[in-house]
Automatic annotation (TrEMBL):
Chain ranges of the Threonyl/alanyl tRNA synthetase SAD domain: 195-216
GO MF annotations, alphabetized: aminoacyl-tRNA ligase activity; ATP binding; metal ion binding; Ser-tRNA(Ala) deacylase activity
A Gene Ontology BP annotation from the UniProt entry: tRNA aminoacylation
Cofactor: Zn(2+)
Protein name in UniProt: Alanyl-tRNA editing protein Aarsd1
SUPFAM superfamilies for the chain: ThrRS/AlaRS common domain, Translation proteins
Length: 217
């Protein structure tokens, strides 16, 4: 399922119906910090609250005035963790803690840019990345990277940021001829229906479930 937050990552308010509300004792994991939790997991018809995935942390926000402390992607559903239950069938207004989300969007698009330049221009493929509240990093497949390369990559990225290169989301079907082999390699079966590709100008195309800015600036 493509969630509303993946169709329009700038929606800050949205109404949707409650489909499920179940008790849960699953922990809250926020920027790697684990907290015990007892409350409810709520499934809605659709959501603007991003469920953690692809390296991007979950959103926090509200369903009416009930706080959402975590959103997780399980199967085809987004589970919204709350302290209070909501009645099935009610329509609620979703709101996002926008400052946190926008920071994630900027950092996630930044990671795509940095990883693309490192890989395409310096043969330094990204092996993992981390998006934190205070710091984010990209791990590359090399034991060391020279100061010179780091400076050149930084300058190159900053030039592209100054140029406000557009960032677009493209939706493809798995059998789309537009989709080359590299895009679908290693894709889990449940992702094979609709594929989301984040395009940074003509610099990069990358499969991703995350939310992104609309241009690099
Ligand atoms: Zn991504």
């Amino acid at each position: 399922m493509v969630f509303k937050c993946q169709e329009d990552s700038f929606l800050k308010e949205f109404t949707s119906k409650v489909l499920k509300c179940e008790e849960t004792k699953e922990s809250i994991v926020d920027y790697g910090k684990i907290t015990n939790f007892e409350g409810y997991q709520i499934v809605l018809e659709n959501t603007i609250l991003f469920p953690a995935g692809g390296g991007q942390p979950h959103d926090i926000g509200w369903l009416d005035n009930i706080e959402v402390l975590q959103v997780l992607h399980k199967g085809d559903e987004a589970l919204h963790f709350t302290k209070e239950p909501l009645a099935i069938g009610t329509t609620v207004t979703q709101k996002i803690q926008w400052e946190r989300r926008f920071d994630h969007m900027q950092q996630h698009s930044g990671q795509h840019l940095l990883s693309a330049i490192l890989e395409k221009e310096y043969t330094l493929p990204t092996t993992s990345w981390w998006l934190g509240a205070e710091e984010s990093y990209v791990e590359v497949d090399a034991s060391s990277v020279s100061e010179n390369v780091i400076r050149n990559v930084e300058n190159r990225c900053n030039d592209l940021i100054r140029d406000a290169v557009p960032v677009n989301v493209k939706f493809c079907k798995a059998n789309d001829p537009d989709l080359n082999e590299a895009h679908t390699r290693g894709l889990p079966k449940d992702c094979m229906d609709t594929i989301r590709i984040i395009c940074i100008g003509d610099i990069d195309e990358n499969m991703c479930c995350g939310t992104h800015v609309t241009n690099l600036r």
